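Mods, move this if it's the wrong board.
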Amino acid sequence: GQHVGLQHGGGGRQTGQGAAEAAGGGRPADEEVSSDSEPESPSAGRRRRREAAAEDEVDETPQEKKLRLAKLYLEQLRQHEEEEQEAAAQPEDLIGDRLKEDVLEQRGQLQRPVAREVQAPDLTSIRVLRGHQLPVTCLVISPDDKFIFSASKDGSLIKCNNVFPAGEVESGKRLCVVPGGKKGTEERHMGHASHVLCMAISSDGKYLATGDRNKLIMIWDAATCKRLHIFTGHHDAVSGLSFQKGTHQLYSASHDRCVKVWNVAENAYVETLFGHQDVITGLDSLRRECCVTSGGRDGTVRLWKIPEESQLVFCGHQGSIDCIQLINEEHMVSGADDGSVALWGLTKKKPMALAREAHGMQDAQGLQQPYWISAVAAVRSSDLLATGSHSGSVKLWKCGEGFRKLEPLWDIPLVGFINSLKFSATGDFLVAGVGQEHRLGRWWRIKEAKNSICIIPLKRKAAPLSPKGPNSS
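Not the wrong board. Structure tokens:
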């Protein structure tokens, strides 16, 4: 990818104690946090830390330095010995396999072959959950696959029991509904008062974040659906949200062309990143301290490396890029309104594979146009993808060897705009958020569509059991 220096907004990078002070120490739970109020710029903060470190180093004599490095070396040796002893105490093949998988996953090289085992979905077993009055725009599945959270253009949030975990008695039951309010009632009203466009859940299942057309990000307690904070600071619709895996760091993207970084546990704003030339339409992140964004009509996908203050720019679609998802730490999939689906490797500027007219062509006002791609999803670290449009079906795809090919697998008939797609953690089912209109606008309306959530079970061909656990089957 092409490197571009990353400019920052007026925000300062604050962590730990600084962030707690920024949050006012004992700030009331539902107070607004704005990203406009941070004094120190990130680069100034980093410079200060570097200068302080340089001052410390001056006081050390060569002998002291030698002694310090020798102690450090001995400590590392001791730790290494301890780790080796620990590993020796475990069953060798199991540990070896698990370590190998972890290393490959971190490098983005793990590709579990799931796609070839997926059977044609049984249409009679698809469950449809209603509840939102207007089009469903976004959804997430809780990390344990037990709950589904969804939101809509009517401003409402719904938490319901998932249909498919074994032993659930009341499956599909609505556990919590936060209704949408009228415009301008955010102060009196618990929930959103405009279209909700995006949501994210932290990897420990503790926090839910939702973003709306009215520039607001709301943070919720995922267990109780109680609102905890409102984050303000974006100057236009909030269109993408993602928690960094294993942390409570939240990334937000907006039509104001910025990405903002927040610390949800500390109730604090961290910094703002600039670079896109047009509205940002989607965002995703995994374990690393970086995120990827789809840049709408500027035609770029960007990878933001937050500690390095740099970004990589990827070009390949012809139209507006409307959705993006990381498959693993090194590969991602995106979809655009030119009808194309692209597979990217983070080391190459151009797509590694591109499926044009992935959902076929439509006749729009007498013109032949490709069906827009409105949603993409991936089973993490595998070769199974799903794409959505308003073409009347959700499509499942297999990524070819080394992510260099996209092969169509199955079509699942679903009428309406597929505005959001998510696989369960194990890849046993796929959830689609369906609406009569596109998530970001009102270009067409499909009257016969139902504003709903569809849960699609994915059966696998019986594979020989392997000792590595369910995810490797």
